[in-house]
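A brief tutorial aside. Many learners find it easier to grasp structure tokens once they have seen a single protein encoded end to end. The record that follows does exactly this for HMA domain-containing protein. Read the sequence first, then the structure, and try to relate runs of similar tokens to stretches of the chain.
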Amino acid sequence: MAKQTMVLKVNMSSEKYRTKAMKIVVGASGVKGVRLEKEQGKLMVEGEGVDVLELARTLKKKVGKTEIIKVS
């Protein structure tokens, strides 16, 4: 499988939500790396075979509003 890079905008209004979002993403199948841009509320996710829709659904359910910005 090819390497994927995804950008997700997540509601991370507090440290609690940032920590929760990071734990969810790191625990997802196929994720190799995660970068956080606090100021913009974005998560840059790198991996192979990651189900982006399922990841976004889980984040929305557990953390709050989540948008898929880019998948490449």
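Self-check: Strands lie at 3-10, 31-37, 42-48, 66-71. If you spotted this yourself, you are ready for the next section.
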